Amino acid sequence: MLQKNFFIIFTFLFSSFSYGGEILESLPDKVNSSDKYVFYSHGFIVEGTDPTPIHERWGQYNFPAIKKGLADSSYHLIANHRPAKTDPFKYAEQLAKQVTKLLKNGVPSSNISLVGFSRGGFITAIASSNLKNMDISFVILAACTSGLAKRAKIAIYGHLFSVYETSDSVGSCDDVVARSVGTVSSYKEISTSTGKEHGTFFTPRKEWIVPVKVWLKRKKPQ
């Protein structure tokens, strides 16, 4: 009888907790306020139906492999496959709404991170500008183009981590941050030098995956 009661209590306690490590396409049906959530937005080439399209210069974009590489037991990874001809501004609104839903369900801002590469990074920047939250974390991968730097209406908020490739035409986020005065809580940037240009981020290369995951799992202010 004692063993049976212990089993019931253990089962109840275990089932009442949610753990990270999941790879999802959208928010889970049940949001646990103590969990951490990371959103990943892919590059433009993946928009459509093919998760592994091939670029004539930069090779194959392996979306499934990137999701697997970014996944971690400490957080839920939400990575939606956008349809062709997605409007980045409308999609950023949807992304911001998902984040807002997490916040309304009691998830602390410090438990939420948004990661985006290229077009996905542009979407991430727009979502950041829409949310205007100083405690959410954002990772921009090779997306700080001169065009983004000139868009005064898009300001980065919160904690920003930027990664760019030295052989790529898309470089530092310094200019974007410089005009986002008073909205960036913290800023860190690193560069890779793989020689693979924009294609550096087409696969889960350790040169960017490792530092991004380390930054996502850093101790954040509550």
TrEMBL record:
One Gene Ontology MF term: hydrolase activity
Keywords, comma-separated and alphabetical: Hydrolase
Superkingdom of this protein's organism: Bacteria
Protein name per the record: Alpha/beta hydrolase
Organism: Pseudoalteromonas neustonica
